[in-house]
Amino acid sequence: MKGQDYILVETICVHYKIEVSFIKELHNIGLIEIEQLEDDEFIHSEKIGDLEKMIRLHHELNVNIEGIDVVFNLLRKEIQLKEELKELRNRLRFYEE
User: Fold this and answer.
1) Residue 42 — φ and ψ, nearest 5°?
2) Contact indicator for 43, 6 with CB cutoff of 8 Å
3) What range defines the domain where residue 81 resides?
4) With 60 as the cut, is the pLDDT of residue 27 above it?
5) How would residue 1 be classed by pLDDT, with cut points 50, 70 and 90?
6) Which uninterrupted H or E stretch holds 5?
7) Secondary structure (DSSP) of 28-92
8) How far apart are CA 53 and CA 72, in angstroms?
9) Closest to 23 (Cα-Cα) out of 68, 60, 62
10) Pairwise CA distance, residues 73 & 94, whole Å
11) How many distinct structural domains can be found in the chain?
C-alpha cells in the first residue's frame, strides 16, 4: 500500500466534519472500501470523490445510508447501461456500413 494513494479515515472525518461511524456504515454496506494497516484505517484517494457525494447526499438532502446505497446502485446501473448502449450502437454502425 503506497502512502500517497491512501488517506487516513480520521483525517477525512476531521476535514469533512463527519463521524467515523458514518464511514464505517458506508463500508458495512459496501459503498466504501476501508484498508486496514496495523491500527489505522485508510480510504483510497480515488474514492474520495464518491465519498464527497455521499456526504452531500447525507447532509444536504438528509438521505439515510440505505438511500445512499440505492442512489449509488442506480448510478452504477446507469453507467453500465450507457456503456452497453454505446457498444450496441457501434455494432449497429458496423452492420449498416
Assistant:
1) -130, 155
2) yes
3) 3-96
4) yes
5) low
6) none
7) HTTSS-EEEETTEEEEEGGGHHHHHHHHHHHHHS---HHHHHHHHHHHHHHHHHHHHHHHHHHHH
8) 10
9) 68
10) 32
11) 1
Report strand pairing: 34-37 vs 6-8: unpaired
Cα–chain-centroid distance for residue 55? 10
The residue-averaged pLDDT of 55-83 equals 97
CATH code, domain carrying 88 = 1.10.1660.10
Check if the beta carbon of residue 29 is closer than 8 Å to that of residue 18: no
CB 47 within 8 A of CB 86: no
Quote the cell numbers at residue 76: 452504477
Nine-digit cell string for 45: 484517494
Cell digits of residue 18: 463527519
